[in-house]
Specification:
Elements: E1 2-7, H1 13-22, E2 30-36, H2 38-42, H3 46-51, E3 57-64, H4 68-77, E4 84-90, H5 95-108, E5 113-117, H6 125-131, H7 137-150, E6 155-157, H8 163-169, E7 173-176, H9 195-201, E8 205-208, H10 210-213, H11 217-228
Parallel strand pairs: 1-2, 1-8, 2-3, 3-4, 4-5, 5-6, 6-7, 7-8
Bound molecules: cytidine-5'-monophosphate (C5P).
Residues 7, 9, 37, 61, 117, 120-121, 157, 177-179, 189, 207-211 line the site of cytidine-5'-monophosphate.
Length: 229
């Protein structure tokens, strides 16, 4: 079963409730999950609201990127959140941190699948040169995927265009954000793909934010279903 994660990027609890209510829809062959990132988790009520969600696939996109000890301690602090299915860590945080994160989730919450973030979909080849990388995005994502695999991560986040080579070296979950429905503006994203394109290239799940949550959510869900056919 493939997952469609709705990115709940807001700090408003009523907006979160509305997103969840309007997206509780059966799509044959797919499961709907909810991704909570920095904006909601950092908000006053965010953590509490997430802790109370039941019977949902919950993706906590905290994008950990610190030393191993700090990340492991952060996971210990999350141990009361028994409903979390996915948690993200930057592959860039390196081997020791990735291993500590995998080890800490095994210790404190075995249900959590550790997902390594490779090069962000908001980053282009020109952008990574400015950070100081000399490799292309493709080479870097390959390296990061191999590292995440060696450290025992359960999944990879990469752009739709990366899935073709990622799936050759990584056989577990491949989650693709930067999804845009036809006609929608890309905004800050640089490497976007359509939902059908992402799945046919090898994604096992996609993350869709603004294309669903902006304007009319019910209409957007219908557009998504149409594009997946
Ligand atoms: O609104 P949009 O569909 O662009 O949102 C994409 C979501 O996926 C955001 O929550 C963003 O933080 C997340 N994400 C991403 N690119 C990555 C990893 C996560 O856009 N590489």
């Amino acid at each position: 079963m493939r997952n469609i994660f709705i990115a709940c990027d807001t700090s408003s609890v009523p907006k979160i409730k509305s997103i969840i209510k309007k997206t509780q829809i059966k799509i044959k062959g797919y499961k709907i999950g909810y991704k909570f990132g920095l904006e909601f988790f950092y908000s006053i009520k965010g953590r509490q609201v997430i802790s109370k969600l039941k019977n949902k696939i919950i993706f906590l996109d905290l994008k950990l990127n610190d030393i191993g000890n700090t990340c492991a301690a952060a996971i210990k602090s999350l141990k009361d959140l028994k409903n979390i299915n996915y948690l993200t860590v930057h592959a860039n945080s390196g081997e020791a941190t990735l291993k500590s994160v995998v080890k800490a989730t095994r210790k404190y919450n075995k249900k959590i699948r550790v997902i390594a973030i490779t090069v962000l979909t908001s980053i282009s080849n020109a952008n990574i040169k400015k950070i100081g990388h000399t490799r292309s995005i493709k080479d870097l994502v390959k390296k990061q995927t191999l590292l995440a695999k060696a450290c025992g991560c359960h999944g990879i986040v990469c752009a739709g265009s990366d899935t073709k080579f990622v799936k050759k070296i990584f056989k577990k979950e491949i989650i693709v954000p930067g999804i845009r429905l036809k006609g929608d503006s890309v905004g800050d994203q640089k490497r976007v793909s359509g939902p059908k394109e992402a799945f046919s290239n090898g994604a096992t799940s996609i993350v869709v934010g603004r294309s669903i949550t902006k304007n009319n959510i019910r209409k957007n869900i219908k557009r998504l279903i149409k594009e997946l056919k």
